[in-house]
Amino acid sequence: MSTPGKALVGLVAAGVVGGVIPLLINFYGPTITDTISSGSPLEVVVQHDPPLTTPGLFALPGTLAGDALPLRDLAAQHPDAVPVGTFEVKLILEGRRSRPAVITDLRARVLNQSKPVAGTLISVASAGENTNVNGCLYLSDPAPDLMTADPNQPGCSPTAKPYFAVHNLTLNRGEQMVIDVSAKVSRQWPTPAQAFGSYEWELVLSVVQDGKTTELTIRDGAQPFRLTSIAPGYRAVYSGTEVMNAEDPAQWLRLTFPDEPPR
Fold first, then answer.
1. Residue 50 belongs to what H/E stretch?
2. Helix H segments across the chain?
């Protein structure tokens, strides 16, 4: 059984502690909050169009049957179609800490390279070019860093310089930034023989905060991104807009690459 004196001391102590905690939070608030908020200094949201829902080239490992195939059905039936040559992805970044987070690098890390996907090629016609590009990544480069987009054309020139050599991106808590990335197999088109392949890859974002560098791995959900080069030959080729019509694979390659067909 406690005495009135001890109870009074306990109340006073509780009052002192209760008063000190708000003072500490007010004085050291950002630091304490950052310590409690574990995890990366940035939140990253990945956005891209599902396969076969946007203009471009896509490859399937198997062979499709039929002549005229609705594109809507193909997109629903083949969500695993692999983009050919180019893959567009949007990164939405948001700061999670009170202290500035400085983005110093964005690069691709190739996890696996195998033969090009060469079953069926689907060519979805485009009504125009997308010019919303911040930079390009070339997976066949020895070091696939993000390269600066050419301001005069929708893409990156073969002599483009590393993006983060000339850009400084800083995010505080709640601040957002968007980076549009155009990932490509090679700097050359058609793809040279040494760069042929189907690539599985992920993005690596380097962030510096309070002098400490953190590397964030960015994937397509739980899976790596996928991209394949054009193959030297296909068992089937389809092209069109809403309805995809079958074409002769050899003739399609000759017409598309009259000067230097894949080999």
1. none
2. 4-36, 71-77, 249-256
Looking at the chain, how many residues does it have?
A: 263
CB 181 within 8 A of CB 111: no
Query: Does residue 122 contact residue 244 with C-beta atoms inside 8 Å?
Result: yes
190: cis peptide before it, omega within 30°?
Answer: yes
Distances from the Cα of 198 to the Cα of 26, 121, 123, 143, angstroms: 54, 14, 17, 17
Residues 6+ apart with CB under 8 A from 91: 44, 45, 46, 47, 106, 178, 179, 180, 181, 203, 205, 218
Rounded CA separation 253/261 (Å): 6
Q: Which parts of the chain have pLDDT scores under 70?
A: 1-38, 127-133, 153-154, 261, 263
Residues 91, 163 contacting (CB under 8 angstroms): no
Distance CA 5, CA 167 (A): 66
**Is this model's pTM higher than 0.85 or not?**
no
- Provide the terminal-to-terminal Cα distance of the chain, rounded to the nearest Å: 92
∠ CA 159-164-166 to the nearest 5 degrees? 75
Residue 102 and residue 29: Cα distance in Å, rounded?
Answer: 21
